Every structure is written in C-alpha cells, then in structure tokens.
Amino acid sequence: MDQTALFKLSYGVYICTSWDEGRPVGCVANSAMQITSDPASVAVSINHGNYTHKCIEDTGYFALSILGEKSDAKLIGTFGFRSSKELDKFEGFGYRVRGKLPTLDDAIAYISCKVIGKMETPTHTVFLGEVIDCGNLKKDKPMTYAYYHEVLKGKTSVNAPTFIKSEPAAEKEVWVCDVCGYEYDGDIPFEDLPDDWICPFCGVGKEYFHKK
Fold first, then answer.
1. The model's pTM
2. How far apart are the C-alpha atoms of 87 and 80, rounded to whole Å?
3. Comparing 118-122, 147-151, 191-195, which segment has the lowest mean pLDDT?
4. In 30-83, beta strands by DSSP E
5. In which element (H, E) is residue 183 found?
6. Cα torsion angle, 161, 65, 70, 86, sign
7. Domains defined along the chain, listed by start
8. How far apart are CA 155 and CA 24, in angstroms?
C-alpha cells in the first residue's frame, strides 16, 4: 500500500483553540471541513494526545483560525509542536475573543463552534461543531498543507492525522530543530549562523538543533 496517495487529498492549515479554565489553548489542525450550511456546521479532527483535545471535551467549544500564506510561520511551530499544558502558546501573538473563543489576529478568517457531536477513532476525535460565530479578518490566500510542505518546507507533527513515519532522507548536511522538526539546510553553514539566530518556525535558539 502506497500511503503517499493520501497526500492527494486537500487540506488547509488551522489553529484550533479552546479554553482551559479561562486560559486560551490551541493546536494546529489540518483536517477540518464544512458539514452543513443551514444550520452551519464544521468538523475538525484532533489527536487524543493534544492538551487542546481535553479542553474541547471539558468546555464543549472550539474555534478555528484559518491561516493564510502570509501568516507567521512561527504560529505553526508554536501551536503545532509544543504543548499548551506547559506553555502559553498565545504569548507574543495577537488574539481576540470572537464568538466566546480565543482566535488569532494573524489569520484570514475564524469560525467559532459549539460541539454538537463527535466520532471516535483509535487516535483522534472528530468534533462536530455548530457555528456560533465566524468572520473574515484579512485578505490572503488560504494556506494549504501542500504550500506548508513545499514552500515553507514544514514538517508534519506526529499527532497530525496526515503523519506518515517515513520521510525522504536529506542528501546534504541538515540541522534539525528538536522542538518542531524544522530542518535547516541553507547555504550558510549552520555553525556560521549568528548566535542570536532562531528557528523560523518555533523561535527557539541554535542550542535546540542537532545535526541530522
């Protein structure tokens, strides 16, 4: 079975958010879709291991911030590869409460939902949400998962529904971020990068990188 056939399915890139006793939390989601139009409803797939999953279960609400191609890539590094249980992911990023839920300013649109149903799989819960608020924030092309991989050279989190274990090995010297998996293979040797250089995805320093 060639699982790369699944790559042909279309995905976006979203930040799924909720509340943790008044504290905003969130994680990256790439499997979301509209289910009905009247009343409007959407579904999103969240890994059981994500802390945001617990918060959606506890509150019964979630929101999707839809990222655009010009959205800060650090949003994906922070929300996709770090845990809300240990980190305030919203620190340094603008956000507002829209439709009772935290939504990010650096998104092209948001959708706030009340959970009205769910479907369980061995690893993920698909939450069905009735839309209680939504709106456009700025003009930009929606970021697709293909754009994230091919243009931003981003990696897939192990908690993502689209994660596949085997990935092509690099042919030249590559340095990998221990936090988000970003791979640096630029023209400037890694050792020669400035001491204050940071990962373009999650913002950690050079000390968090190892040679692949």
1. 0.75
2. 12
3. 147-151
4. 32-37, 40-47, 61-66
5. strand 183-184
6. negative
7. 12-150 (2.30.110.10), 175-211 (2.20.28.10)
8. 25
| Alpha carbon distance 117, 114 (integer Å) | 9
3-state helix, strand, coil in the chain (%, to 5): 15, 40, 45
Contact 118, 127 (CB under 8 A): yes
Within 8 A by CB and 6+ apart from 151, the residues are 69
State how far Cα 10 lies from the chain centre: 15
Instruction: Tell me how far apart the alpha carbons of residues 186 and 167 are, in angstroms, rounded to a whole number.
Output: 19
Upper half-sphere CA count for residue 203 (Cβ side, 13 Å): 14
23 forms beta bridges with 20
Report d(CA 131, CA 116) in Å as an integer. 10
DSSP 8-state code for residue 15: E
pLDDT of residue 10: 72
Q: How would you class 128 by CB atoms within 10 Å of its CB: exposed for 0-12, middle for 13-18, buried for 19 or more?
A: middle
For residues 127 and 45, what is the distance between their CA atoms, to the nearest angstrom?
A: 6
How far apart CA 198 and CA 97 sit, in angstroms, is 30
Comparing 86 with 33, the larger pLDDT belongs to 33
From the CB of residue 129, how many other CB atoms can be counted at a distance below 10 Å?
26
Q: Which residues contact 90 (CB under 8 A, 6 or more apart)?
A: 24, 26, 102, 104
pLDDT at 165 over 60: no
Instruction: Give the chain's length.
Output: 212
